[in-house]
Amino acid sequence: MVHEPLREEKVVFDASDGVSLSGVYHPTEGEPKASVVLAHGIMVHKDYDGFYPALAVDLAARGFASLRFDFRGHGETGGKPEHMTVAGELRDLAAAVQLLRRRGAPQVGIVGTSFGAAVSVLYAARTRKRPFALVLLSSVLDFRRTFLEPETPWGKKWFTPQGLMEARTRGKLDLGFFALGTELLREFEDLKPAVVLRDLEIPILMVHSEGDPIAPFQPAYAAALSAPGVTFVRIDGPGHYFEGSRDRVFLTVLEWIEDSLTQQRRAPSPRRAGAAGRD
Q: Is residue 166 part of a domain?
């Protein structure tokens, strides 16, 4: 799909702990139907491989505004990579959602890719006001099988037993182009996004390439099977960013987001149904 892009707006906003975040807001021609936060993966940035910029254009063509941003320690956002943590990224994602709400977004959804999918799941479970839809692309939902006992070629290359052992004494795992701190590595041992996913009562779409060389397919597929209400789409091929299948994936995501918003608008209000609503 090719659309003429609208003018984008660079934005700077703060997380709750004062970290300044860099992002790009992509508007629609008129009032948006809803807005979507685009959460990137680890060791990359908001514009990596042109993935989110292209998705933002297609979202705008469907009437959805979007915000893509760099998590702390990534891209144009400040901070050292070795200081990033899941806890910090949760603050960043919360700030991104709040920015869209301050701009009057009637509803906010989240698209999380790779490590960003894990952060999106954890955020959706903790926030009082849930996203109207959650899209998880090439999900990293099992930190042990991705980083600590890796199963993919990418993981085995960068997260070797020797490297992980040396990180305990050095205070970081130095990957040359990026460094991970020991606090993050400890979070990998404790946090289980795949388990958290099971209790999320919101529309969830998962899309994953069967031959993904970075995010292992089987843990993501198993997580989807164990979580009621998850729509899982399997993509043939090896791409982490759906190389060769991107148009199909984007169309699937766009149609699913649109359907999720329509269904939510048709659903009866919890208060009308006699149940307590959530803030």
A: no
Nearest to 97 by CA among 8, 54, 40, 35: 35
Task: With CA atoms as reference, report the closest residue to 52 among 68, 64, 76.
Answer: 68
What's the pLDDT score for residue 271? 45
Q: How many domains does the chain have?
A: 1
Q: What is the predicted pLDDT for the residue at 255?
A: 98
Sequence-distant (≥ 6) Cβ neighbours of residue 135 within 8 angstroms: 109, 110, 111, 112, 204, 205, 206, 207, 253, 256, 257
Domain membership of residue 112 (yes or no) is: yes
Q: Is residue 19 part of a domain?
A: yes
277 Cβ contact partners less than 8 Å away, ≥ 6 residues apart: 269, 270, 271
Nearest to 261 by CA among 97, 129, 108, 128: 108
Quote the domain boundaries for residue 47: 9-143+192-262
Amino acid at 146: T
CATH of the domain at 208: 3.40.50.1820
Contact present, 111 and 37 (Cβ < 8 Å): yes
Single-letter amino acid, residue 27: P
The model carries a pTM of 0.93
pLDDT, block means (10 residues), the chain with 279 residues:
71 97 96 97 97 97 97 95 97 98 95 98 96 97 98 96 94 93 97 96 96 97 93 94 96 97 75 35
β-pairing, 64-69 vs 20-26, is antiparallel
Which residue blocks in 50-178 are alpha helix, DSSP H? 51-61, 86-102, 115-126, 143, 153-158, 161-170
DSSP 140: -
